[in-house]
Amino acid sequence: MAAQLLRVVGVSKRFGGLSALDDVSLSVAQGEIYGLIGPNGAGKTTLFNCLTGLYSLSAGEIHLGGAAIHGHKPHQIVAAGFARTFQNIRLFANMTVLENVMVGRHARTRAGVLGAVLRCARTRGEERAIHDRSRELLDYVGLKHKGRGLACHLSYGDQRRLEIARALATDPQLLALDEPVAGMNPSERREMGALFLKLREGGVTLLLIEHDVKLVMGLCDRVAVLDYGRKIAEGTPENVRQDPAVIAAYLGSEAP
Amino acid sequence: MPTGLDFFRERPRLAFVLLAGLLLLLPFLVGGGLGNAWVRVLDFILLYVLLALGLNIVVGYAGLLDLGYIAFYALGAYLYAWLASPHFGLHLPFWMVLPLGAALAGLFGVLLGAPTLRLRGDYLAIVTLGFGEIIRIFMNNLNAPFNLTNGPQGMNLIDPVSVAGQSFSSPLRIGELVIPSTYLYYYLFLAMTLLVILVAMRLQDSRIGRAWAALREDEVAAAAMGINTRNVKLLAFAMGATFGGLAGGLFAAFQGFISPESFTLWESILVLCMIVLGGMGNIPGVILGAILLTAIPEALRYIGDLQRAVLGHVVVDPADLRMLLFGVALVAMMLFRPAGLLPSRQRKREFGAQDAVAEQEQADLYDARA
Known about the structure:
The complex is a heterodimer of chains A (256) and B (370). By secondary structure, chain A is α/β, with parallel strands linked by helices.
């Protein structure tokens, strides 16, 4: 088995009296596509927010590549190589498509105020590299000719692609995608599925929240199922599909 | 008119030479045509351009609404007065005092920024408003037990700027040519303004500028892109405050006298209005806003004379009328040009012809990485 990239140990998150996550543990191996499914309100997005530092944990530990990242700030977690997208797309709407991706390079570049004002050779070189890499990434996700337009003018599907390009710009080892194909038609979904496989081949490990069970079953190496903040199943898609607890969570349990 | 602008757009060198010539001759043209008082107005326009460019970094770039900006102007001015006036008997040269004032203001920018990091929008505006007032009230009351600011009387006899033995408060004589004091300050302020414009432009189009824009658009997403939102915010406060402090030092040297009355909340609001009127985030827009909101009130002073000439007595006090027109202008702007007179490039792009650009892009794009 490949090395573990992400290790989540006993993570709990309470909002006042509400327990959104209860002792969730899971681990994602290097190079796999790991699916996270579950009914609405199961705590999938809460888990993402905990993983990426937007929420502080009530209990538990998170390790990325052997180093603890729980309690770190979001920007530190990005620097450690863990990027994400958002369920309700959060692009920089009034910046251009290209600029959105260029912002993603922030974590991997260094120019400060002095560099910006003096525009020394190093800063100019860095700017050029940011520009080139960003265009490359737009091309990679299929937004080659749309760099100049505003992000808010993109179609819905393209906005999702842009979010992925922007997250990729941070050079992540692990990319967490929160419902990346929600609201897309079947052909767009297939294209996105192909993109995920391409990403994996490029060496990025994917953590995927998705409602489209067919897509998850087709793509993911392993799947975990959350229900009411608890992990109720984990395994290969085939095994999980036949798990009685999962069936009960989705369809309700059989009458006795 | 678009055709006129296109003419110059195709000839950038000619436009540059003409603009440079105009800026160099402007005090002579204005002084000759309208009198020396208007050259003084010109000086104030440049000071307000400096202030507006500084506030534009905080409000326009980073999207942090700051209603106490004038406090940094006050700090720069008071530091100049402390270090270059008979008050403490210190007379340091301006090239030493101006950077110190800018640095002090920058430091206070960080001090203001630090406790307000978690605040946004209205809440941030209220806290910064309070900060601006606190500084002014301090300056108003720090004449006892130890006389630091001379209280409401203000500080007097502040050293003028002087270069190579030539004091800017007395006219420069080159042979027959006599260049009055206000003209000299005009050139000094112009140089500073050009410097600040350069800095602001370069900051906007840089890694830091993009981080500010991202912060303005969506703070959570900015953090998720690896931006340290705390540092980037503090940096915006510090940079904006630095420009304000610089302008304050220039103001103190130019006036030779400062008092807390020059640094009221009204001044903060005025500078903010310049940005909003001109076009937030867009440097030419901000400059235009500063010019209009400084020059128009001056021009409206003549309405009193006009009334006296036509009607024999003053019916409406010009000062009241100025405020009225000011309000009407802002309301009209909100209705007809909500993005400002010269909106920022993002908004312009929405309507701009993109075809030529797209073709250019296609030509130099890269092959798929696959």
